[in-house]
Amino acid sequence: MTVERVTADFWFDPACPWAWMTSRWMLEVEKVRPVDVRWHVMSLGVLNEDKLDELPEEFREAMAPGGWIWAPVRVCVAAEQRFGAEALGRLYTALGTRFHNQDQPRTRETIVAALADAGLPADLVEAADTDEYDKLLRASHKEGIEKVGQDVGTPIISVPGPDGTEVAFFGPVVTPAPKGDAAARLWDGTLLVASTPGFYEIKRTRTVGPIFD
């Protein structure tokens, strides 16, 4: 029997460690379920630009125009525009590995190294310091946010509901990223709640930070 493949749309900011954890789970899901992940960018800078006064100073500086939050996601948009969605996924893995697993500084040099890891040209880093791709970035961000509403962060995941229409959620927020059968079970559960009319939220206080393995 042929099993129909499913597409899961995933919005991320490469700077977010929680989105990184969820994205690694989705790569595991691709191995154990007939699922293809389609990557999209969103932006913590855009998400928080009207709330900068409410943030701690260290985050306020990072998310303000010109802060380091903007550079990697701008380069991601540039890579997708020049080389396609598959290149975006490769670059996300390269950036996330260096930012999160290896705790490398969020600098231009790290981005250039990640571009090399992803087999992409170093000149893409020039997008980091300009607003050339910001219109496209904002459009992608808006697309994800409009599926779930304003009271969320990154990541956003959109999955097929029981009647084929998409259902989107913030999260799931999980650490460490489930693997193998555990990844499959979480995916199955995600589809289950997506099939429940009126389901909105399950949440508890995080007591453990991201565990990168």
UniProtKB/TrEMBL annotation:
Gene3D superfamilies per UniProt: Glutaredoxin
Xref: SUPFAM superfamilies: Thioredoxin-like
InterPro entries per UniProt: Rv2466c-like, Thioredoxin-like_sf
Name this polypeptide is given: DsbA family protein
Lineage: Bacteria, Bacillati, Actinomycetota, Actinomycetes, Kitasatosporales
